[in-house]
Amino acid sequence: MKSAVIVFPGSNCDRDLAVAFETATGA
What we know:
Blueprint: H1 13-25
């Protein structure tokens, strides 16, 4: 499984990180 760390400046970190993580993991 690939892991990715994506940062969205000026946005809701928790929500965007959760969405990005799900997208990256295919969940």
